[in-house]
Design goal:
Helices cover about 25% and strands about 20% of the residues. By secondary structure, the chain is an alpha+beta fold. The longest helix is centred in the middle third of the chain and has 27 residues. The structure holds fe (ii) ion (FE2). The site of fe (ii) ion has 5 residues, from loops.
Length: about 375
Amino acid sequence: MGTEVQADMNNGPVQETQTSGDIGGAPVIDLTGIEGPSRERIMREVSAACEEWGFFQVVNHGVDLAVMKRAKDASKEFFASPDEEKLKFAMKKNVHFHGYFNPDLMDKDVSKFSSTYEHLYYVFYPPLQEHKDRWPTIPEGFGPAMYEYVVESRGLVERILGLLSESLGVESHALFNGLKGPDVTQSNMNISFYNAKKEGEGEDQIALLGHTDPGAVTVVYSDEVVGLQVQKGDRWLDIEPTPNSLIVNLGDQLQIMSNGRFISGNHRVVEKSSKRRLSIINFYSPNMDAIIGPLDGLLSESNPPVYKSTPYRVYLDTFRQRARAQLLDTISSFKVLSLSDQEPSSESTIGTASTSSTIGESTSSTGMR
Ligand SMILES: [Fe+2]
């Protein structure tokens, strides 16, 4: 599985990068007709991508392109604002690391896992007043524009969850119901503005170390600048954004709920373009009190649970603790141990992190891509 593969986790020059011939390193899937006669075909393609890659791009995804553009324009305008304006929203340690972070202007300890790029991190769903009060107000209308996009992209995630449930042979709301637990799922937004590759710098530099996302499904709205890479075996492949597409990857909770049939794709970010890269990321995550484990309908004597059932809150706490210690592969801590697994094993690390990066949802500001 993707999370069990360790390769090239250190920051620093990239050793080898290859691009597949398949418009970047993951399938591109056309969702036209998802509620009609094409549903079966789309379900097979999405399911295969989740089993093989944990990553895919979607086109004709049903997310309003005008809404996407408004979110992108607002994000660009925020990052183009004067530093003193942006710093009014600076991340603080005592508010769960929500806010704006810029390593050139701020104490790196604020983010704990200091990043090499500036970004914003906020909860956008559910839109509680305590969340709204923190949303940036530059440019005017930033919050509503981003919220509108969040609602649209959450709809996409929920359509994909329906497809994946059906492909698993369980009721079409099974994954969604499992994720929402006693209340609602959550969307944390990380809007990242990566640095350009420096002039004269020969090697591409890793901006964000290889990791899997701890949540359920991540939707990445990237501009045209290449930088996100997905791991396939021992290779890192570029994801080349197709115009108007969205990139989707599964997080650890979907690997757990599918009892290992789907994989949480390992990915990283490199600085390889002369342009800065904007990435608007919706981390669609379980309710903190949802008990996440393999779906009951999947289990049998011949398919026993591979993972334990755990409140998402506990999983996320473990993820954060391990990330602080620069340990990767949280999901392995939640495996049901067989006798052969109980041998002493060495921990995988994220590397020496000579330049540390943010690793994962809500570790700091966290985030990714
Ligand atoms: Fe990520």
